[in-house]
Amino acid sequence: MSETFEIGLGNNDNNLRKKADSDFESFWDEQAKNLSWFSPWEKTLDWQPPFAKWFVGGTINASYNALDIHQETKSSKSAILWEGENGDSRNITYGEIFIQVQKFANVLKSLGVQKGDRVTIYLPMVPELPIAMLACARIGATHTVIFSGFSATSIKDRVFDSKSKVIITADGGYRRGKIVPLKDVVDDAITELDFVEHVIVLERTKNKISITSKDKLWTELMNNVSDSCPAEKLPSDHPLYILYTSGTTGKPKGVLHGTGGYLTHLHSTFKWAFDIKDSDIFFCTADIGWVTGHSYVVYAPFLHGATQVMYEGAPDFPDASRMWDILQKYKVTIFYTTPTALRMFMKFGDDIPNSFDLSSLRLLGTVGEPINPEVWKWYFKTIGKEKCPIIDTWWQTETGGMLISFLPGIETIPLKPGSGTRPIPGVNITVVDENGDDVAPNTKGYLVIKNPWPGMLLTLWNDDAKYKTVYWSKYENCYYPGDYALKDDDGYLWLLGRADDVLKIAGHRIGTAELESCMVSHPDVAESAACGIPDEIKGEVIIAFVVLKQGVINDSNVLEKQLVDKIRTDIGAIATPKQIYFVSKLPKTRSGKIMRRLLKAIGNNEQIGDVSTLEDGAAVTEVKQVFDELQ
Ligand code: ATP
Ligand code: MG
What we know:
Layout (H helix, E strand, L loop, with lengths): L13 H9 L1 H9 L10 E6 L2 E6 L2 E2 L1 H5 L4 H4 L3 E6 L5 E5 H17 L7 E5 L5 H12 L2 E4 L6 H11 L3 E5 L2 E3 L2 E3 L1 H8 L8 E5 L12 E3 H6 L10 E2 L5 E4 L9 E4 L2 H15 L6 E4 L6 H13 L3 E5 L10 H9 L3 E4 L1 H9 L3 H4 L8 E5 L5 H11 L6 E4 L35 E4 L12 E5 L9 E2 L3 H9 L10 E5 L5 E6 L4 E3 L2 E3 L1 H9 L4 E11 L3 E10 L7 H15 L8 E4 L13 H8 L13 H13 L2
Parallel strand pairs: 4-17, 6-7, 6-8, 7-14, 8-11, 11-12, 16-17, 16-18, 18-19, 19-20, 29-30
Antiparallel strand pairs: 1-2, 3-13, 4-5, 9-10, 14-15, 15-23, 21-22, 22-24, 24-25, 26-27, 28-29
The structure holds adenosine-5'-triphosphate and magnesium ion.
EC number: 6.2.1.1
Family: Belongs to the ATP-dependent AMP-binding enzyme family.
Keywords: ATP-binding, Ligase, Nucleotide-binding
């Protein structure tokens, strides 16, 4: 029996689930009416597996729903409370951002950007990033945002793939006190890309840049345009954006999202999961370069006219107290971050958050990886002071919005640390075996989604064939996300790690999350990663990598024995790693996810494959060295 926590916000709307269960199409039909449409749809869902079109015949605009609809009531309300890494700050109202977006939409038009064209955006976390995205959406251009930490090669690949004629960048961005020369990176990326016609440069850091014939300055362009640009009336399935996945399991995939369905999904989940109110100060720490930033920094908060904090820099800069300082300064009420960030904060110790006033918080969330129960409890106690519900939201770039989460805005149920709880209303998610048959409760298997949902990707950009094989070929007419999971007796879902990473030991299958959470529950352990490597006798053996908390003095031999004992007691002798390696950091994607496939490749003496989204090459070098030393 896992520990449960009874904490909600007192909401209980049973009707919503009842309606969703009886007919998911008419349920979503009703939700879509929360948005402003230019013309209504004729058909709720056109499902020609594996392609889904939502709200067929309806016309809508994302930028209109994010901005125009708030002008009468909220034009002087703050949309973005921006905090620069260097301490700069800006307060941008709904009225101001509306003008900026219209002007920038006119800038794009003046450069020849038309409906359906792709526009690449490579900007740091500054307000001009959502402004540029909403301007694209306004005129029906498809934005493709690239995380501002990526290299010239990554940009070249993505710009080439999307054939963007216009790129929006900045002279530089601040990261850990240093200037990242974004414009130079773009110059390198596009030397061979003749189809790129214009590069728009925002001056953020005023560092020296070279100006080519393609370059135009953001401010100069903005001086010469009108501040009125009506939103285009676009079909519901008009492509809103292309976004590449995090690349945890290999080469990133170019996910294409539409408009009407996507916005419906976001509008609903932002209300149900975050219980958003007009008075809230929302803060999501995700970079807009990832889907969490697209959905829950840009689109969902804007659809609701919410006020949010946007932070430019690294979460531990200039020191480990930065996040708590921001929460205190802006009186944040809803905080949404990642398990990887929480493990880092936890590693720094409780004294730091304890010295800040975090009493404004009323709701906490996580996304990105399974959250270890130990980390969940720390978040609940040390940050939420045992009064804030935690939503553990499972979703993917491909799903557009969250699909599994506790929804305190509509219901109150007991929480179990480490479980995302249940699917959102209107989606049919279950756990199946290799043959696609539902497994019994508490049996491990593969997560599948049995009906289309509004935020579902349209396809992979320019690659319907890959779209079909990656997501729709394992099971007929069922979406396969590639995650390993189980459903317990109460119908709660537990995400156990990537299906590709499952540890197969002597006929038993263990999800990486099970073993890693066990190791992380040792008081000295900050993070861990497990993977399987081939073994002549046993077929496969487990190796594990462990990062210790700051200031731990325990001897590694003693610690290894303690960890092995813990694993034997909590999971069973079968899960005992052949070797535990102590390292100072784990290889992660830029979005903060552990890249177990690299550990596996090192353990296997194999080539390590696509590392374009790797955060820090030094982690790989260290892991390899520690591994080789113990061979
Ligand atoms: P790629 O598909 O390129 O390998 P990625 O899967 O890491 O990269 P994302 O779309 O950013 O790209 O991540 C989605 C994945 O993150 C999910 O499939 C799941 O494995 C993991 N994930 C996200 N949220 C959660 C969560 N709350 N609990 C468990 N796992 C999660
Ligand atoms: Mg993925």
